Amino acid sequence: MTNRRQFFRDAAAAAGIVFTGCNLSSHRLAAQTSARKRRVTVGGRPIKTIDIHAHVVIPEATALMGTKTAPSDPTVIAAERFERMDEWGTDMQVLSINANWYSVEKDVAEKMIRIQNEKLAELCRTHPDRFAAFASVALQFPDLAADQLEEGVRKYNLRGAAIGGHVNGDELSASKFDPFWKKAEELDCTIFMHPQGIPEMQKRLEGKGGLTNVIGNPLETTIFLSHLIFDGTLDRFPRLKICASHGGGYLPSYAARSDYGCVRFPGTCAALKKKPTEYLRQLYYDSMVFTPEGLRHLVAECGVSQIMIGTDYPYAWSTTTVDHVLQTPGLSDADRRAILGENAARLLRIKT
């Protein structure tokens, strides 16, 4: 095992990607892992499982912000990633980079995004059976972000973009971001939203329990989606394909209150074309809700066609994602196949 991990580390260093290198042979890697790879079947039929929520870091890009990725970071160990994927029954990961560059100047942002998207594309070309990826975009410059999205999709064959839940405190439903949403709709690509936290609530979330993450992240997702609904973004761009991480935050669990809010305060919803809960079925979600009842409820509120598995790898949130779907009562075999891989394959145009 030591020699194998060193092999991956050496390749990673050469390629400038924290967890794997583009010099690795796909055939060689497949031969190394196939003996232990878990094969997932549903109703006697094999299914290609696709994890919509997995992360990487590109040290060459983050270095432009003065951030150094330490060699001891667990994401540098490529062997562990492939071992865990095989152990969990994950055939493919859709990679994204959490947006931490919204405060940088334009010239730095341009360099960072170019490096990240080039490296992601190179990685996906080398391992097309294991990886697809979302482009990075500099949303603090909406017109530039629209151009970067188009380049990512058309030039690099990336499957859309990964974005944060706000940009320096500005909601993404603001009209200044419309050029980006318009481009995403034109390209018919997916936008994967991952929260960055809520800085203005930092003090209240301090203390025990890891509340900045445990509460703060799903809360930001809830706020992000609610603004897209109530501020009219989803009406202006009805063909948008937006995937919300962490099961859509709290919104699917309490969405009926949004509908009733329109009854109590009708003026706040006068411009909407339909009830708030109806928009939930045009959005997409990962399956990170942790319990069978949580997944059953997400399906009931949003529709089985809108849900895909997500692990948040390499962060230890969801090591039993495949089994979560397989063991949730009330799902048909068709439902399980859809959530485990068919929805993601359709949405992201991934061959199965």
Query: How would the global form be characterised?
Result: globular
Low-confidence stretches: 1-15, 20-27, 71-77
What structural class results from the helix and strand content? alpha/beta
Kindly report the average pLDDT value. Answer: 89
Query: Please, what is the CATH homologous superfamily?
Result: Metal-dependent hydrolases
N-to-C order of helices and strands: HHEEEHHEHEHEEEHEHHHEHHEHEHH
For the largest beta sheet, what order do the strands appear in spatially? 6-9-10-11-12
Strand content: 5-15%
Task: Please name the CATH topology.
Answer: TIM Barrel
Outline the biggest β-sheet. 5 strands, parallel
- Which percent range fits the helix content? 40-55%
Question: How does the SSE layout of this entry go?
Answer:
Blueprint: H1 2-15, H2 26-33, E1 41-42, E2 45-46, E3 50-55, H3 59-62, H4 78-88, E4 92-96, H5 106-126, E5 131-133, H6 142-154, E6 160-163, E7 166-167, E8 170-171, H7 178-187, E9 190-193, H8 211-214, H9 216-230, H10 233-236, E10 241-244, H11 255-264, H12 276-279, E11 284-286, H13 292-302, E12 307-308, H14 321-327, H15 333-348
Parallel strand pairs: 3-4, 4-5, 6-9, 9-10, 10-11, 11-12
Antiparallel strand pairs: 1-2, 7-8
